[in-house]
Amino acid sequence: MKLILLALALCLGAMTISGCAVVKPWEREYLADPIMRFDSNKEEKAVREHFLATREGSVGSFGVSGGGCGCN
Amino acid sequence: MLKKTFAALFIAVLLPALASAGMVNKEAPDFTLSGLDGKAVSLAEFKGRVVFLDFWASWCPPCKKEMPEINKLAEKFNDADMAVVAVTVDKKKEHAGSFMSTIPGLSKRITVLHDPQSSVVSAYMAQAMPTSFIIDRTGVIRFVHFGYRETDPGEWVKEIESLLKDK
């Protein structure tokens, strides 16, 4: 049992280590691309938030929500 | 035990930052790169002059803020005494070229070189973008600046002037 737990811990550790990579300052060209940002397109972001707010019926998360139709 | 662990972690975090700071008072690694015009230029060509060597990229906002100041710096000193070498790590040199063309009154004293493989920037162990090195007349790195702060141009001038005094 101990061996299995140790193997699992090692596997988990190996997976975690392989997921980490040091990105050098000069290698950030693609990361710095505006397309990598969640809100790179302001209009698209506004529409998405408006749609989500009206459909979810939540007020206060993204601003003022409408009556639920998503049309205002 | 805990103290030792913390000490080890502290060293592990500090080591990379110390790596390029450790370049100070060492000979600047020589390189040959092609310019935006395709002409090959090597650092050795500037020996005898103080060299302001900057690593930058057009995708890096602080670099964009810094470049107009580098432009002013290039015009401030006599060409025979000081050279400005700006090495871009952009993958496409057109990106660097189009950014440079937006700088009003771009100085012809700035030598813009292209390092698409990042071989030179890694040899200098730059810890930030931009990173600038001030190299004395004998080819020894004397000052390093990581990133860009508004107080940096004043410091560059003082440091270059101090090196120009050494004939």
What does this structure look like?
Chain A is mostly helical. Helix content of chain A is 46%, strand content 0%. The mean pLDDT of chain A is 76. Chain B has a single domain, classed as Glutaredoxin. The mean pLDDT of chain B is 90. Chain B is globular and about 50 Å long. By secondary structure, chain B is α/β, with parallel strands linked by helices. Chain B is 37% helix and 22% strand. In chain B, strands 2-1-5-4-3-6-7 form a seven-stranded mixed β-sheet. In chain B, a hairpin with a 4-residue loop joins strand 1 and strand 2. At the A-B interface, loops of A face loops of B.
Oligomer: heterodimer
If helices are DSSP runs of H or I spanning 4 or more residues, what is the number of helices of chain B? 5
Distance between the termini of chain A: 61 Å
What does the largest sheet of chain B look like? 7 strands, mixed
The interface involving the most residues is between:
A-B, 8 and 15 residues
- Give the name of the CATH superfamily of chain B: Glutaredoxin
Strand content of chain B: 15-25%
| Pattern of helices and strands of chain B | HEEEHEHEHEEH
Number of domains of chain B: 1
Name its key features:
heterodimer; A: 72 residues; mainly alpha; 2 helices; flat; B: 167 residues; alpha/beta; Glutaredoxin; seven-stranded mixed sheet; 5 helices; 7 strands; globular
Topology:
The complex is a heterodimer of chains A (72) and B (167).
Chain A (H helix, E strand, L loop, with lengths): L1 H18 L22 H15 L16
Chain B lengths: L1 H20 L10 E4 L4 E3 L7 E7 L4 H16 L5 E7 L4 H8 L9 E5 L4 H5 L7 E5 L5 E6 L5 H13 L3
In short:
Chain A is mainly alpha-helical and 72 residues long. Chain A contains two helices and no strands. Chain A has a domain at 24-61.
